[in-house]
Amino acid sequence: MLGLVETRSVSPVFVGRTEELETLKDSLARAAAGEPQALLIGGEAGVGKTRLVEEFATAACREGAVVALGGCVEIGADGLPFAPFSTALRALRRELPEELAAAAAGQEEELTRLLPELGESTGGRHDEEGMARLFELTARLLERVAADRTVVVALEDLHWADASTRHLLAYLFRTLRTGRLVVLATYRADDIHRRHPLRPLLAELDRLRTVRRVELARFNREEVGRQIAGILAAEPDPIQVDDIFERSDGNAFFVEELAVCATEGCGTGLTDSLRDLLLVRVEGLPESAQRVARIVAEGGSTVEYRLLAAVARLAEDDLIEALRAAVNANILLAAPAGDGYRFRHSLVREAVSDDLLPGERSRLNRRYAEALEADPTLVPADERVMRLASYWYHAHDAAKSLPAVLDASVEARCRHAYSEQLRLLERAMELWDTAPEDVRDRLRPIDFTEVYPPCGCDPATTPLRYLDLMAEAAVAGRLSGERERALKITKRALHLLEDEGDPLRAAWFWTQRSMLVQSQGRGDGWKELATAQELVRGLPPSEVHAEVLAAVAGWSMLRAPGPDAFHAAERAVEYARMVGARETEMNARLTLGGLMVDAGDADAGLAAMYEVKERAVEDGIAYVAGRAYVNLPSELDSVGRSREAVPILEEGILYTRRFGLLNSEAWVWANLSNSLYALGRWDEAAEAAENTLRWGRNAKPQGTGAMCLAQVALGRGDVAEAARQLDGAHGYFGTHDPMPQQSLPLSCLAIGVAAAEGRLLDARAELARVLTTDIPPGTQDYGWPLLLTAATAEADARAVPAAAQGRAEALERLREAAKKTTTNAPIWHAHEQWVRAELARVEGQDTIDTWSDVVTSFEGLDRPYDLARVRHRLAEVLLAAGGDDERDRATELLRLAHAVAEHLGARPLADAVTLLAQRARLTLNRVPEQRPADPAEALGLTGRERDVLRLVAAGRTNRQIAEELFISPKTASVHVSNILAKLGVSGRGEAAAVAHRLGLFPPEDVDRLVAG
Fold it and tell me: Nearest 5°: phi and psi at 415?
């Protein structure tokens, strides 16, 4: 555990807060049992939040927990990016150096953004997932450190937190899954006005059931009396208690101040102004100590001793005497690390700072900046650039401030603190016109924003332009989620470029605007991309040109696949190769491979995608590799090779999780759910879809997960649940940016739900709406299931008199669509046969040969549910034909179809098969052969429970079971509980003994698991 927790209170007795402290201790106990805990502690300034955390931390240390404290830091009015997390991780590293090093192994380069002591950072890629990647790695780091011990991470003063800290805390609160971990944060409730940036976060966290809120109220009179007694070490005069209670209104800090003032004899003539109350003891200090207090107040939350000495310009003995006076008066405290000073309470610091004159404040900031420039070692290296920028900015010196602010923006970008980078760049734009021209002329492009042309010629000799700042700010806004601000910046930039004749810059800004418009739901982004494409048309190859073409190809692949998309992807690959833009080239090649598969050249396209995946993984290009783990299995699934896709997807889950590619991981889970559904592994498909909904940060993969859940529910006959999930999917996808890979499956499900509810006219209306245009080329993997669902609905309603009207038109529409839809893979050739068979069934013209061909086609595919369905149809026509051979063949087909339907829980299919067998007086159940009974079946274990029991017998923990079976630890725990109940045992050891005694698993299987 850590050393003694710093105490900043003058009250030796902890008063009240029994219920709140019990809540914290309960969270500690839950965390010790392996359930991560998240808490928010709110209350007005001075109400006792810090004292409660101190008391809890002391109690946690007594229980053997490791406590790491971190506070949000103010430098003037600026917060340091990730400051509380950096402080807390630094404390963990001091206490658990080996454990933290092992937990960070392999990810040091990314994690140095929070904890520079881990090593050197090379900058890395900056993309939409960069910050999320850092957040995911931080969450996993904390989970690993807390795997075998209870860890408490306490973050104070969240109301001062920078945006990046707020985002990281929200991420942790949402995603912590395992570990003996408590994360708590405190904030001033009275500071959270309507526009305070913390307010939306608090509202978001209120919706999370996993976050516990603790609100501290003011003390009542009895508690105030006990607090005063503790301070005075004697029973106070009741009149004095009444007076202090009335004037403090029960605020613990004001009670302390009033009690101390009364003790020291400064209570006479004290005004009722709270500001005066806070300043009265400061004004009682010697002049030199007051001066030092004013310097510390403007320096930030904590000021290092050497920096303070440089700014104060006092003789060392005089400085020490002044500090001693302030410390003895309980105004200042030595910082926890022992290398600086801070105010005992931030309210006093704020009062002293507010009392400074305007000229005095800027003069102090200038002194801080000059001292830091003269000796950069005065502050920690990871704070130096940010603090220097803040000091110069608040010194109101544009010539010094502009370069310092730009340096700080680069530092923020390197730490993935994009919100802070945006704020600093906007500050630089504010300073631009007031900075002297010679200062601006000496500035050089501060960074290379993606493929933005940083200048017209050599960046080493060409001055920085205002447009370069706008480019950096636009990207920072996009990456930080501040997209509205980024849209305004791109709009201003394009306005400035109207008279410049710089098509590359303009094309780059239009491409950025396209991404922003799409992400904000303002449209599909094509207008902006088309403008960019027109601007670069006819220009020599360049990185911008290649990036624009790659963006056009990627956009078209999802929304309008065809020759134009194919041509754009080919040119993007060619141009990127010519200018050496390797990442753009690989990204475009991945798109091109997908378009080749969709166009019918599956072998060549898949080979190209495999190559991109392998090279991206080998070369460490995580963004392209993550996209490959999504797109390659999707294309494999689209040509019926789902079994080949599953291991790639399982590998992709591990890869995307390792590199914190959260959006890619959500897509991998979504695609895995589709592949598992196709393979007849419906329970696992539903579990993968639930993971998509649980961990997805982007609405579209969540919508895909909801569609898979709707598909499973529909197949199992739960039409109400299917309709609910369908509505959820519509909500996720929205209406602003329709894509065939979303709109066609949604329509397919809508037709299926309508047909199941007997609403054939609604099903026809949906089909008519979809087929107002042809099914786009390259989308046959979505088009054929749609046509099949509609054709089946018509065939099932063939005997309904009300369905006769409009049937001919619907059938003609289906036939025309089927003629135009590609059958360039065995899976879609089989679907074409099936659709035509269903259309023949509508008119009573389906034959044994018709359905035999369909069954033969599906027997060569990994589609057990589809095969069961067409076997049912073949059995139907066989029984209608009569004859003993036909009857025997139908019996076997129905038995096979029924077994699959029962295994999947596909109740409508199972009922239809059973009904047909009953009408034909067939027996679906064979006379069982004499064979040993399966003990697992006799015990009522499901297939998944059998898998879990096998791992329990091998000694696996719930966490290890979850990782091996790709389920959550909570789900693994539920399975284990069910197994214990079914076996009638009380523990895992007894369950393992039963498994061994009954011979459920061959010894070599368990031995292999243990050895592995």
Answer: -95, 10
737: how many CB neighbours lie within 10 A of its CB?
Answer: 19
- CA 605 distance to own-chain centroid: 31
Joined tokens for residue 169: 């805390």
* CB neighbour list of residue 686: distance below 8 Å, 6 or more residues apart: 673, 708, 709, 712
pLDDT digits (tens, 9 = 90+) for 472-506: 999 888 888 888 999 999 999 999 999 888 899 99
- Tokens representing residue 200 in the block: 């939306």
Which among 527, 523, 504, 514 is positioned nearest to 455, based on CA atoms? 504
SS3 674: helix
Q: How many residues does the chain have?
A: 1012
How many angstroms separate the CA atoms of 697 and 1001, rounded? 40
What mean pLDDT is predicted for residues 797-813? 91
Distance in angstroms between the alpha carbons of the first and the last residue of the chain: 34
Q: How far apart are CA 471 and CA 489, in angstroms?
A: 8
Residues 308 and 340 sit within 8 Å (Cβ to Cβ): yes
Q: CA of 970: how far to CAs of 39, 410, 416, 959, in Å?
A: 20, 42, 32, 9
Q: How far is CA 532 from CA 535, 613, 727, 836, in A?
A: 5, 29, 36, 45
Q: Which residue has the tokens 């931080």?
A: 138
CA 245/CA 253 separation, integer angstroms: 12
Both tokens of 183, joined, read: 């994360």
Residues of the chain with pLDDT > 70: what percent? 91
∠802-808-811 over CA atoms, to 5°?
Answer: 110
Q: Are 89 and 97 in contact (CB under 8 A)?
A: no
Cβ atoms within 10 Å, residue 826: 15
The helix/strand/coil state of 561 is: coil
pLDDT at 1002: 66
* Tens-digit pLDDT profile for residues 430-468: 999 999 999 888 887 766 566 677 544 566 677 888 998
Burial of 809 (0-12, 13-18, 19+ CB in 10 A): exposed
Collapsing DSSP to helix, strand or coil, 450 comes out as coil
636: closest CA among 665, 669, 609?
A: 609
Band of the pLDDT at 263, cuts 50, 70, 90? low
Residue 695's φ and ψ, nearest 5 degrees, are: -105, -10
Whether the pTM exceeds 0.70: the reply is: yes
The residue type of 639 is: V
What is residue 414's predicted lDDT score, i.e. its pLDDT?
Answer: 82
pLDDT over threshold 50, residue 329: yes
Token output for 404 = 């310092």
Q: How far apart are CA 687 and CA 5, in angstroms?
A: 44
Radius of gyration (C-alpha) of the chain in whole angstroms = 34
Q: Of 843, 899, 842, nearest to 867 (Cα)?
A: 899
DSSP-assigned letters across all residues of 792-848? HHHHHTTT-GGGSTTHHHHHHHHHHHHHHS---SHHHHHHHHHHHHHHHHHTT---H
